[in-house]
Amino acid sequence: MKRGTGLDQAFPAAPAVRTRAIMLAVPDLEEPYFAELTALVVRRAEEHGLSVVIYQTWGEHEREIDVVNRIGVPPTDGLLHIPRALSVADLTRRRSPGPLVLLGEHIDSSPFAHVTIDNAAAAGAATLHLLERGCVRPAMIGPREPASDASNRRYAGYASALEQRGVVLDESLVGGVRAFSAKEGYDAALRLVDSGARFDGVVCSNDSVALGVMAGLAARRVSVPGDVRVIGIDGVSMGAFSVPSLSTVEPDRELMVTVALSILMKQMATALSMDLPVEQVTVPFTVVQRDSSG
């Protein structure tokens, strides 16, 4: 992938004056995972003498397209982008090619640099953890509407783990959310309990949803982990201090950020006439058992 040399180029490889700044495009800083990831990016970037400009996209397709095309944003030397709605077509059509690393959510068949976790495997590991703890009817709360790649893959991982263990997938145990928030998790837990469905575990699409789920179960006097075991995904710090403390699947965020910045800085140092270095890296995760899964 070669960069253009037109006057509208957003991220020139060797501008007369470098900004010594990079941009981080993030869906929503109200989500604890993104807030913690952003803080880590800022800390690690500063170690390399780089400032970070933060741009919230709210996961909206139009805003994600704007930022990759450098519309309405300040000049920077490179872009770390956590996409929710972008497609490969959006990226290949961008008018302002330059240093770009996608962080987090997966884009199928992407020719761009990308550092992520295996979302399907993470959800599968969470589901298997509950099954190994004795659950026979684990629910899932978290498929998102509008859909996101991460939630779709995490649902697929949940379904695959059930099939692997010979557990029939019961769609009545799958609750959707409109956002990855504690409020959505709380409301989804109330709906699930009030539906009368029998379940003894809940796999949640992320930790924010899981914290809300535990609050919703408590509101309906359902004991965690006595009646229902709960696990989230993402490893946000507040999960260790909830009551009960939250079991989770924790990606290696330190490695994720370190690798993403390394790739981005290689791209920023690449001569204009050269192809940008492209690496696609999947970082490992760890299942962290705490009180919520017993």
From TrEMBL:
Keyword DNA-binding on entry: yes
Alphabetized UniProt keyword annotations: DNA-binding, Transcription, Transcription regulation
Domain Transcriptional regulator LacI/GalR-like sensor: residue ranges: 129-293
Keyword Lipid metabolism on entry: no
InterPro entries documented for this protein: LacI/GalR-like_sensor, Peripla_BP_I
Entry GO MF terms: DNA-binding transcription factor activity; transcription cis-regulatory region binding
Protein name: DNA-binding transcriptional regulator, LacI/PurR family
Organism: Tessaracoccus oleiagri
